[in-house]
Design goal:
Strand order of the largest sheet: 3-2-1-4-5
Radius of gyration: 33 Å
Oligomer: single chain
Strand content: 15-25%
Largest sheet: 5 strands, antiparallel
Distance between the termini: 29 Å
Shape: elongated
């Protein structure tokens, strides 16, 4: 069966799109792996630099609800004292949640100098970052390829329809018995 030029073009473009989709998958996996490695390095560094400390509140946390009648209390900044990993005692404001009274001991994190910092990143956060990057690359790449393929198919369908119309003008009268 003879094939039209548009059929051969469509086949070639299909192979190209599939190849680009596989290439996009490889790029997503490599990028996700690189992000995971970088984030795990950060996790290990933060685990080494940050230590848990016990801070003792110097004042009772304020009991100001988010809105009238609300039972939810927003986070509050309260003065506290803590001893850093270097043995030096520090005083400053820490963020607490809930109705905590003066003298309450809360867990927080400090850097090697005793300054308060957030908790170290987790291995789960490294995995989430890697998956997010890989999924973003796949979504963007495959979405672009799907749009490209849809455009190519539409263009080829229009070319085929125009070709069929031209051919019908030529052979239609013979098939229908109407000669012009």
């Amino acid at each position: 069966m003879p094939r039209r030029r548009t059929d051969r073009l469509e086949d070639a473009l299909a192979w190209l799109v599939v190849s680009l989709a596989l290439f996009t998958l490889v790029i997503a996996v490599v990028s996700g792996s690189a992000v995971h490695g970088r984030e795990m390095d950060r996790v290990e560094q933060e685990r080494g630099d940050r230590t848990p400390v016990r801070a003792v509140l110097l004042q009772t946390a304020p009991k100001v609800p988010l809105s009238e009648g609300s039972v939810v209390l927003p986070p509050a900044r309260v003065p506290a004292t803590w001893t850093g990993a270097n043995g030096v005692e520090h005083t400053g404001l820490i963020t607490v949640r809930g109705m905590l009274h003066a003298g309450t001991s809360v867990r927080t994190w400090a850097d090697p100098h005793g300054a308060l910092v957030g908790p170290p990143a987790s291995a789960a956060s490294a995995s989430i970052a890697a998956i997010t990057v890989a999924a973003g690359i796949l979504g963007a790449g495959w979405g672009l390829l799907a749009g490209l393929w849809a455009g190519v198919r539409r263009w080829i369908a229009a070319r085929n329809a125009a070709g069929w119309a031209r051919e019908w003008v030529r052979v239609g009268p013979e098939w229908t018995g109407r000669f012009r």
